[in-house]
Amino acid sequence: MTTAAPQLIQATLAQLNKVIHGKEQQVQLALTCLLANGHLLLEDLPGMGKTTLAHALAHVCGLEYKRVQFTSDLLPADLIGASVFEQQSGRFRFHPGPVFSQVFLADELNRATPKAQSALLEAMEERQVSVDGTTHPLPAPFFVIATQNPQSQSGTFPLPESQLDRFLIRLSLGYPNPEAERALLKGRNGRVLLASMQQVLNESRLKALQSLVPQVKMTDNLLDYVQRLIAYTRQTEVCHLGLSPRGALALVKSAQAWALLQARGHVLPEDVQAVFVAVAGHRIIGRQESQGEQLARQILGKVDVVGGGRG
Amino acid sequence: MIWLLAAQLVVMLPFLFDLPLWLLPVLVVVAWWRLRVLAGAASQPGNVVKLLLIGLGVGGLLLSGLRFPSLDAMATLLLLGFAFKSLEVVQRRDAIVVIFIGYFLVALHFLYTQSLTAALYGMVSMVVLTGVLVGVQQAITEFSTGQSVRFNLRLAVFMLLQCLPLMMVIFVFAPRIAPLWSIPLASGQTQTGMTDRMAPGDIEKLGKSDELAFRVTFKGKRPAQHELYWQGLVLNHFDGHEWRQFDRDYDVYQLKTALMSHYRWQPERMQVQGNPVAYEAVYETSGQPWLFTLSPAVEVEGDVLRGADYRVMAQEALQAPFLLKAVSYPATQRDVVLPEYLRTLALGLPSTGDQRSRELAQRLRREAGSEQVYIDKVLARFHDLAFEYTLNPPTLGDKDTIDGFLFDSKRGFCAHYAGSFVFLMRAAGIPARVVVGYQGGEWNAAGQYLAVHQYDAHAWTEVWLAGRGWVRVDPTTAVAPSRVEQGLEAAVQAEGSFLADSVLSARKMPWLNGVRQQFDAVQYGWRRWVLGYDREEQAALLKSALGDLSVGKVALFAGGLFAAIGLFWLLALGMAQRRQPEAPEHRLYRRFCEALAKRGARREPGDAPGAFAHQAAEHLPALAEVIREFTQVYEGICYAPPADGRVATRRLKTLLGKIR
């Protein structure tokens, strides 16, 4: 299994890239997120293939998949389920909601009211749901892919920073490149291709891959670099809100998963750089109105990769 | 802000000992008002109230009868302003003004007292003020009040400790400039200790005081206790009631004139003999110019006056502790040839009064064959007729005091014996004079010095004998030999009158006596080495350290020390902040980057080694292979440690050589 890990990963990526054209980087990040056992936030305009990516991920991993379209009248019970009185037995029985699934796609998360949002976000963090005093564990793996429209769009409830922090990685897909778009126009539509996808992973294989992530080595030199990055985000003249320890942990974990994706047993600064914008972009807030992602890119350019004490 | 008030009170407290007492209620009321303001229960005073307060303050100042201008009046005014200022502290700026005035007041208090305790208290005040200054600068306190106060005080202590070396340098090197103007001190300054007149009852008063008069360190052997006669001044004139120096009272300036003209010191009139006694004395502030030496002090260091009676006297009344270094030769013969002027002074008696004593003197002189025999007879009379030595003699009235003592009361203190003895000598035609000063002293073994207190005050006599000059005769020894051998306490032990009025005196408690002596030793050190560090001391010290003195040399040396201290702190700060040195592989990598940068491939800080190697290899195809390998080895060392890092590091060096 271990020796087969790189091949497995390559096969998975190949399947995903077949469906999502020309977005290798984003596809890799999405898989990184899955391997690091974190939740993924896809933020983009409507119609950019967010749902397709979520579908494809669930499909290729062979996981049970449910999707809920979030609307402003969505209630928490619609997500997590409710206890219903059954006449035959004469008692209440819990009907699990769609959140009881291995891959849960929360489409247009920011269209729902904060109440519904927070119900989901709590489930994500605790990996369990409490209804009527009973705690129901969620299936494992439990992987939430949420999509959201940019907040400038009307009719949205922006997620607060504390809840954004629960997503390991935030991605935007962006417009496809001309070739990919041409292919799309020619009818190689993602939804059509989904059917032709092979299931490469299954639950146990995914778990095995996930268990490999923490084994990817990080030297003191690398952690020095990570700490330099974190310290830089915390300098008040740079950011209004620096990276929290949870954010730092997310960065390290993602970098390990990314290194695993590159079939490497140790983390390189390149791995940290590759995930930094996606991990830190939604966690730091600039002094001015500048976007977190731009800021994250600037920080990457400023912090010296090389250096450190005697390790 | 409550800490500002606390700091203000700390600073103002010591002034209450020296300034008018009505300041105390003013301070209390102002503090109470301030507390009410802080609690939100009262408002800050309006303009009318402020004017009223100023009026009251100035009025009180006028009514308190302080001379204007004088230090006291000015200090009181400043203190009032300082206290009132706390009522209108609104902004940070106000608080800073208050703190800075506080610093000034701390310095001002040293004009009143320079004791060790005052210095320590001044340091405490400085710490509190600095702590409050730190606190005032903090925009937001992240701690609770207690925590932040502790933090601020700790910071203040640390900051002041850092100033200590600079303070030392300034203390040692700053020129001791004679004052350009003298502060009009002294309106509240009291005179303590010996006065220039001696009436029956004067010295007993001193005998009941345990205040310190001066301290002496001997260089070499310490003379025996009964030889320690510290001569202050000589009293020549007797008016039937009290003894004075001259036939009329001289003020300090007239006295100075006399000491420079007809009463001047003439060293050629003494024949130096015997063993020298070298010593240093530090005299306490007395408000009087008298200094006390073992007569005759042949060599004296310091700016002093000297007189025909071998006295040593300060130029001014002592407003601060005074250091004198002297070498005395107690066996010296003085005035073997007595000038007529001094003979007249030493024989003068009032024309009438004390008739019985005069007759007694003439009768005894007739019976005695020589002057020496006569002296012995008089002393024996004191002894044989059971005269009593007491701190509480009966009063003798205004007339015929000598008769009253010699024939009626027969109870007296040293002044009675000295006065009547000189009277009897003069009545018999022998030149004699009263000498007042101190006798003995308390040996402090901890500090190796002699402490002379007011209760060691003593009066004795000098008799002029042909061929021998002035001879010291202490009639008290005839009555109470223990006074001279063991001190006053032993002499009046039976009577129990020693320091009878000061019940709480530490010397009454034997277990405290050791502590008292230790503390006294520390204070003496302070007096001698800190307060006594004057221009001469400075010059001597600098001379011993630097050789010949020149302004440039001293300035250079002091500047050098300043620079050294500055450098030390700079290094200490730099050391604390300096990063750990980088590991060798990182240094090699940086050199690698420099080498490539020279060839046009520059690495930005954010470029990871792998990414940079890629760019550089494209830019410099000739070196592509080396660049790749170097990067690979480097990445290996940094991110996937090989078994032997040293081999890899060596490889890095070789590769670096290839690039260069």
TrEMBL record, chain A:
SUPFAM superfamilies: P-loop containing nucleoside triphosphate hydrolases (SSF52540). Residues 39-169 form the ATPase AAA-3 domain. Residues 233-293 form the ChlI/MoxR AAA lid domain. InterPro entries: ATPase_AAA-3, CbbQ/NirQ/NorQ/GpvN, ChlI/MoxR_AAA_lid, P-loop_NTPase. This is MoxR family ATPase.
